[in-house]
Amino acid sequence: MFFYQSFCAARALKPVSWAFLSFFFIQASVAQNTLPDSVQLAQVVIQATRTSSGSPIPHNNLRRENIAAALQAQDLPYLLGSMPSVVETSDGGMGTGYTGLRVRGSDPTRINVTINGVPLNDAESQGVFWVNLPDLAASAEEIQLQRGVGSSTNGAGAFGATLNVDISKIHIRPFAQLTAGAGSFGVQRYSGYFGSGLINNRWSFSGRLSNIRSDGYIDRASANLNSLHLNAAYLDERQSWQMHLLSGHEITYQAWNGVPVQYIHDDRLRTFNTAGTEQPGEPYDNEVDDYTQRHWLMHYKREISDALWLQLNGHYTRGFGFYEQYKASEHFSDYGLPTPIIGDTVIDQTDLIRRRWLDNHFGGGTFALRWRASSACEWLLGGGANLYQGKHFGELIWAQYAALFPKDYRYYDNDAEKTDMNVFLKSEYRFAPQWTSFWDAQVRRVQYRFLGFDHELRNVSQEDGLIFFNPKFGLSWNFQPQSSAYVYAGVGHREPNRDDYTQSTPASRPRPEQMLDLEGGLKTGQSNWRFQANVFWMQYRDQLVLDGRINGVGAYTRINVPESYRAGLELEACWKISQRWQVAGNTTLSQNKVKSFTEYRDNWDTGEQDQITYQNTDLAFSPRWMAQGNVQFAAIQNSRHNLNLTFSGKYVGRQYLDNTQNEFSLLKSWLVHDVRLNYDLKYADNQRMSLIFAVNNLFNQRYSSNGWVYRYESAGYDARPDDPYTQSEGGSTYAQVGLFPQAGRHWMATLRIMLGE
Prior knowledge:
Shape: globular
Distance between the termini: 30 Å
Strand content: over 45%
CATH superfamily: TonB-dependent receptor, beta-barrel domain
Largest sheet: 22 strands, antiparallel, barrel
Number of strands: 38
Number of helices: 6
Structural class: mainly beta
Helix content: under 10%
CATH topology: Maltoporin, Chain A
């Protein structure tokens, strides 16, 4: 069945694929066997936001061959799951649709992401929604994850990690690649990727078209994801141009409510999805997120002299879409309308279907100037300026009493504008044969204009401006040819996000976050083994957390906690035992604490809020222990056939859903095992085939990787019979809890046919 689906995929791509294949065979006859000087220039990429192997910043690189060996239908966070201190999660339960990752317990809004040095984080929420660019990893030449503050970058402040995705590779020779995949829960993935190679040593063109579908593990958590990547490049002896178009369109059935806590241990209800169930009878079938995002990237690189290089990047992102909801028994007043009276009857409620829209533009430019002052000293001047304009509005597309709503009625309309500018200077200086210093200083300015509340709770336009200075310093000691030690210190700042601004007044608005990051470590190894140890201390001031408090406009929003920290030890090791056997793994041991935290808990009986103060509690979603390991066995190794078997396991310690360290609201620890088979066949000089077959969660572990909690007091009403999200914590304390269970044992298979390069 799988190979039949693969054949169907090839037929579906026929209009595009055979045209490219014909072009491939024409170009193959004139392909160059040597590497032109212009290509050498193209490969001198000024990676202003990346860090080198000798850097004092802890980081891991995932190269193209590693990506190709693991890439199936799951999204990019799942490719990074084997790196230290990383926890990946999926709303739908199996890695397609809405996915995310945390690094050292830091949530996605604290992870800076760039593509070719261009910022990807949403300017307002500061998060990255990988579902908007499905199959991005298929275009990546390398993915680098820096932990901690990292090196200076463009876009949102990095408070847990910096993630760089490199899609800048220029393919020298023509190639064609067809991919088809299938798996549990209706997973299908089809992709065609083609390239012209260099034409007349000057021009290069490539393109990728992908479709990923899944029914999801959670009920109705389906995903239909389409993506396109087109690349054109021009090169000569001293300069190069690249143009990229990345386009993604996703239709994902909502699964972000989580599974009610009362259902999580019931096999029949463990995948229950409350989204759409407000419609009487069958769940509403279009309770979806429908969003399109297109990125245009331009890169110009020039070799000014043998010691001076310049890179200029321009970018523009267009995003538009909505999520749709069926809402039952909604009050007219909640939509800005008076309660209607028909005859003697008051109509104060109605069923309706609403769409909440986001329509935004994001553009700007970045630059990098690299100067090699001497063989021992290198400088890099970089920075960028970006402008975001976003429209937020809501529409009603159907109502039970439609005649009572104005035509094309928008019940809210909210525009925002944000500018983000930064400049940084970096230097690496080898001041002695074994000693290298690293300097990095950044100035960043943020200006945000938005619609928010004033002190009289009127919705008015507001503005906030912030300037941050982020210095960093590192020192490396290469005491042996393959051994080094390092220390690093960095300061980071991060502005509040959209909700922090719009759901507060200037008087109740939270302050920006600050962090001091201290790192130190050791790297050593030989040809067949390597070992790395890293210790870190991340000291926060004014970290933003939810505490249950209602602010000046009646909304639950985040507040600043004066002191909190993350401290830990990260270990990595790899040992090639023989030509056939290899073992690798990593582990993280950490303490993640908020020194003093006051919870504001709603009291349903009094209408007030109770205050409970905690000392030295764990930060939310921060496991104390994580570990990952794998064993790889090369069963067959020869010039035509390669068969590798990889068995891996990952352990994540328990995590609390909030900062109270409450045993009733935690994610229990889990240990999952995967097994993957990779078979590669080279059946001609430039023709290859690879097969990937994986069984994930091999031993059918039941676990949840994410969740939420709302705690309250109620002596007069026990909501558990009426609300499956509610559980008792003893006495009159209750909590509503939603959890995101992940799929049990499931399989995926991918067939890839490659011609050329």
